[in-house]
Structure formats: C-alpha cells, structure tokens
Amino acid sequence: AIIFAMHLSAQTNNVVVGDTTTSTTSNYFPIYWYYGTSFSESIYPASELAPGLITSVSYYYQGGSFSNGTITIYMKEVDQTTLSNVLVGSDFTEVYSGPASSANGCNSYMLTSPFAYSGAGNLLVAVIRNGSTYDSYYGGYKKATVGSSYVHYYDGVSYNINSIPSSSLTSSMSGVPVTKFEIASLDGFCFPPTSIVASDITTDGVLIS
C-alpha cells in the first residue's frame, strides 16, 4: 500500500502520441461508433512513450456527442510492432471499465487500475465497446506514421478479451489513434514484483522469492 501511494504521488507527465493539428481522422479507432460493438487494439512503440505508471488515457474525437453501452480498456507490453489481427488472451490487464460515451474534443479515462509500463516492450492498448445501438461516424484523430491498429466490429455480439465472434467485420490501420497518456515518472518508482514463489511455509514464516 505504501509503495502504491508513492506511485500515485509521483510527478505525472503528459505524453501525447500524435496531434490534432496535423493528423487526419479515422472512423474506426479506438471505437467504431457506427456499430453497436467494437474491439480495437493499437500498438504504441516504446520510443513514443516513457516508462512509469500510466494513470489515464485520452482520445480525441471530431463530431457530436453519443452515449450507449460500456467501454473496457486493457493494456499489456508486447514485442510485436504490427497487428495482423487483434490479440486475445488472459494475460491482459484491465485498466478501465465504465459507460461508453464520446464528445467532440478530448475524451479522458482515469484508469481504475493504473498500469505499470516498464518501457522494455511496446504498449498494446485494447478498447472494447459493448452497446445496444449505434450512432454517427464520429472520427478519432490518428497518427498514421506510428504503430499499428486493428479492429473487429458488428451489431448484436458481445466482445471480450479472450475471444472474437466469427461474425465480426474487420479493418486495419497503419498508425494509432492520437492519444494522451498521463504517466507517473520513475522518481522513487518501484515496479511491482512478478513471478512470485512462496516456499518453506511454516506456522510462523515463509520464504518469498
């Protein structure tokens, strides 16, 4: 708890991949609002980011406002630089879940589970929207020369991070949505331990390695 509190009190940097002044728009990413459901993923190269604790993520839309369904955001580090399909599996970290909505301009999501990004790999962000209806072609700004993105979309299906319905329609994009990450700096930052093993368990002790 003390270490986690240190994370949240650290200096936060705004890292923006792309910009809204020179970027064009894509209707598909990170959410394809013209269909009831969509499942998109984008790979952000490590060179565009900074190691630290990601506390929020923001996307930029051009268009009106709309609200329906839920949005869930997942993150993981990967070695891949491009996507030929979305990746699925249980090794993603769910960082946000809440109502799905869009508005013209910046749309920010404060992560309910901040993500510890080491910077050793590229950042994969998955965005799943499950809804019951659709609206206009709201365009998300894109940075076409950075990373890779892929999306599945359809009406009347329910997406999850572990599988893809066979009925999905798909689209791909060279690039990623213009995205702002709030990242706590590494000053005093200690990454959570992984691959923990408990052994020599007795009534009054345990060896943790």
Description:
34% of the residues are buried. The strands form 2 sheets. Strands 1, 2, 3, 4, 5, 6, 7, 8, 9, 10 and 11 form an 11-stranded antiparallel beta sheet that branches. A two-stranded antiparallel ribbon has the order 12-13. The chain has one helix at 2-9, and strands spanning 12-17, 24-26, 37-44, 52-62, 66-78, 93-102, 105-117, 122-130, 139-154, 169-177, 179-184, 198-202, 205-208. With 209 residues, it is mainly beta. It contains 1 helix and 13 strands; from the N terminus they run αβββββββββββββ. The chain starts with a helix and ends with a strand.
Which keywords apply here?
209 residues, mainly beta, eleven-stranded antiparallel sheet, two-stranded antiparallel sheet, 1 helix, 13 strands, 54% strand
Shape: globular
- The helix count comes to 1
User: Could you give the count of β-strands?
Assistant: 13
Overall average residue pLDDT: 89
Radius of gyration: 18 Å
- Uncertain spans, ≥5 residues at pLDDT below 50? 5-9
Terminal CA distance reads 20 Å
